[in-house]
Amino acid sequence: MIDDMLEKAKKQRVNDIYILPNDDNKYVIKFHMNGGLASKSNISDEDAEKLISAIKYRAKMNISERRRPQLGRFRGAHVWIRVSSVGDFLNRETVVLRLIYSEQHKQHWLSSKQFEQMQLGLPESGLFLISGPTGSGKTTTLYQLLQNIADNKLVLTIEDPVEIRNPNFVQLQVNEAAGIGYEALIKVALRHRPEILLIGEIRDYQTAKAVVQAALSGHLVISTIHAMSAREIVLRLLELGVDRNQLLAALTMVVYQRLVPMTSGNQAAIVDVLCGSDITMATGFTIQWQEVLDEAFLAGKITSATRTTFQSL
Predict the structure, then answer these.
(1) Which domains are seen in the chain, by residue range?
(2) What is the pLDDT at residue 186?
């Protein structure tokens, strides 16, 4: 049952699978793509219980524990699956699966000039950060940026888990169960003297501090962080406790990315890029964000509704 479900999800390039109880003693399975519902189907309580138990077994979670939150993960064919489970107020279990695809796919761009701008602006050292919602293609963008320079420079990545395998990079993977987190791996990575260090995600103060220190020591450090705009990246890091002066000295470029639905049926990336003094001076989205949306609409790439929706995101 698991394999059939995952195979269907992979064919649709689904990001998240929700297995949720509903009001009529049944469960619903929802496939989500880039924040939107792609499809859903109902299954019986009995089938849901078997499915959830099988998922938790693969993810090395406690099958008998149905109320307390649990996290786990397992590997499928060309995909990593992160699993989160918790019981609701009626002690019915809810499970969410996050699919992380191993193979690298080419990112479509609403404007190819934006990707070229980031490539040309990629600094020799300092901190380059990209933010955006889950499933917005951040890792794919970072790998594309680094792919063209990996032949001449040592690129080392630290991820949880490694999302895209690349033989041109030295790739390390976080293992919290073994006590090997981002902070510890960053220290190890720096001994390899990489010219470029890619950190999968900044989640806490320890990682944020280590990333800033690495950037200030002459490395180019690239990472992702959860923020709702390019400007909010700075605010998020300050909230984590990073020293403001050190942060501003390290930061060279911040990017906010979204995936926009196109009339062709594909998804295309749009980015908001801030460099230099603009990182702290900006009060909202740049003019370029609006211009790219307008040009895409006039070219028939997106609908009027899509342009309006993404103007204020």
Answers:
(1) 2-101 (3.30.450.90), 112-311 (3.40.50.300)
(2) 92
CA distances from residue 166 to 75, 163, 207 in whole angstroms, order as listed: 17, 10, 23
Contact 31, 38 (CB under 8 A): yes
Give backbone dihedrals phi and psi of 211, rounded to 5 degrees, phi first. -65, -45
**Kind of pairing between the strands at 196-199 and 26-33:** unpaired
Q: How far apart are CA 251 and CA 216, in angstroms?
A: 9
Hunting for tokens 């995936």 — which residue is that? 259
Question: What's residue 70's pLDDT?
Answer: 92
Q: Which residues pair with 297 in a beta bridge?
A: none
Q: What is the largest CA-CA distance in the chain?
A: 60
Which pLDDT tens digit goes with each residue over 210-258?
999 999 999 999 999 999 888 899 999 999 999 999 999 999 999 999 9
* Cβ neighbours for 206, distance < 8 A, ≥ 6 positions apart: 181, 182, 183
Q: In the prediction, which pLDDT does 283 show? A: 64
pTM score, whole prediction: 0.79
**Residue 127 host element (H or E):** strand 126-131
Q: Do residues 73 and 57 make contact, with C-beta atoms less than 8 angstroms apart?
A: no
- Please spell the DSSP secondary structure of 277-294, one letter per residue: THHHH--S--HHHHHHHH
Query: How far from the centroid of its chain's Cα atoms is residue 128's Cα?
Result: 15
